[in-house]
Design a protein that fits this description.
The chain has 415 residues and is mainly β. The protein is built from three helices and 38 strands. It has a domain at 22-191.
């Protein structure tokens, strides 16, 4: 009797162990009826399916290939899987519905050249990677979760976060390769950090604001006339490419990290005392001082002029300054707006005196063409003598009176 009970216990344990083993379920959707299910009678129902049955669980991988005729899946209730695997032969699938699909540590990989679309809400259920290895991944539902999420992609492949509602994801977000298109204002949710590795690209496709830390050596670009506002403590060392009418708002001292900026057909607004060793390449864009709230002191690496570009100072009574370590020109001219010939207005300084090729192609609006370097490295209009402030006149007058008084006393003693 003991032997029989022991055998039953062992068989029961084996049965439990087997049932808890990770399995792979392949979608076998047909156009109608009960064929719209996973092998093993799994069931992520689409709108035409009423079949009941088991479904992939948190220890199982849901797999997709080219065999189904039904490629639209509807999440009729919340599901949790270990991961999603779109094989190289997979068709273009669409996973929709209002119930949450939670992805475990197996993550998502798309080895197919076809794009895969998720309009259902997706939760990051563990530390995982979403990989657009051979085809794009598009998410238009709400992305949630607090575990670290890594994004990856093959050459030219993209992962897109879009839709009407902001993501609520709060974990660390890393772009290791490929491109993330942030195509809604809340695309980043409240991600605790953003890392963009070399070979990875972050593209702002909406008005994006981000106050947490950005690191890495990748690239930041703009798709269309969208804005990216940065106000965190960043160590990013990659490149910002401000083009397509985009706007980069640098609203903290380390907003740019040590990264370089290329202004092609976009604008960078300086809204803080920005400091970076990274250079600024002017290739048709605009650098603007936003000092309506307070004066700004910003310093950059080398200024490189490669096409007609603009620096917009402000004439609102503040005394902001832009300092570049050096300046060179390969093509185009640089127009400087709102420069006023008093020391209490916005100024531009260049630490290392630029050559004639650069100075000849600087135009101060209202002063004619050509620039010169004045005392202290200030860049001003050619042929213009800096005008002292009234308090400087008063100081000079006072010094003159003091000198005259000493002269009178000496002459009186002699007489």
């Amino acid at each position: 009797m003991k032997i029989k009970l022991s055998s039953l216990v062992i068989l029961s344990l084996l049965s439990v162990a087997q049932s808890s083993e990770a399995a792979t379920y392949t979608w076998q959707g047909a156009s109608t009826g009960n064929g719209q299910r996973f092998v093993r009678d799994g069931n992520w129902r689409n709108s035409a399916d009423s079949a009941a049955g088991v479904t992939p669980t948190s220890t199982d991988t849901a797999q997709f290939n080219d065999s189904p005729t039904q490629t639209t899946l509807v999440m009729n209730s919340a599901r949790t899987v270990l991961g999603l695997n779109f094989l190289s032969t997979a068709l273009a699938y669409s996973i929709g519905g209002s119930s949450i699909l939670t992805i475990g540590t197996g993550g998502i990989i798309n080895s197919s050249a076809n794009s895969q679309a998720f309009s259902a809400p997706v939760a990051v259920g563990g530390i995982e990677t979403w990989n657009a290895a051979s085809g794009n991944l598009n998410f238009s539902g709400i992305i949630s979760g607090s575990s670290a999420l890594t994004l990856a992609g093959g050459a030219g492949k993209q992962i897109t976060f879009s839709g009407a509602s902001a993501n609520t994801f709060s974990g660390a977000l890393a772009i290791n390769s490929g491109q993330l298109n942030a195509n809604k204002a809340g695309a980043l949710g409240s991600a605790s950090s953003l890392s963009i590795a070399s070979g990875g690209t972050f593209s702002a496709g909406a008005a994006i604001s981000y106050a947490n830390a950005i690191s890495g050596a990748g690239s930041v670009t703009f798709s269309g006339a969208n804005s990216l506002t940065l106000s965190g403590n960043n160590t990013f060392s990659g490149s910002f490419g401000v083009a397509n009418g985009g706007t980069l708002n640098a609203n903290s001292a380390s907003a740019l990290g040590s990264g370089s900026v290329t202004l092609t057909s976009g604008t960078m607004n300086i809204g803080a005392n920005v400091s970076t060793p990274g250079g600024v390449s002017f290739a048709g864009g605009t650098l603007a001082v936003n000092d309506t709230a307070a004066a700004r002191t910003a310093s950059f690496g080398a200024l490189a002029l490669g096409a007609g570009s603009t620096i917009d100072l402000t004439d609102n009574g503040t005394s902001s300054s832009l300092t570049f370590s050096s300046a060179t020109r390969s093509a185009g001219g640089l127009t400087i707006n709102n420069w006023v010939n008093t020391s209490s207005r916005d100024k531009i300084f260049i630490s290392s005196t630029p050559n004639a090729a650069f100075l000849l192609n600087v135009t101060f609006n209202g002063f004619g063409s050509g620039g010169q370097i004045n005392a202290g490295g200030e860049l001003g209009p050619a042929g213009t003598t800096p005008v002292p402030e009234p308090n400087e006149y008063a100081m000079m007058f006072g010094l003159g009176l003091f000198g005259f008084a000493i002269y009178r006393r000496r002459t009186q003693k002699r007489s």
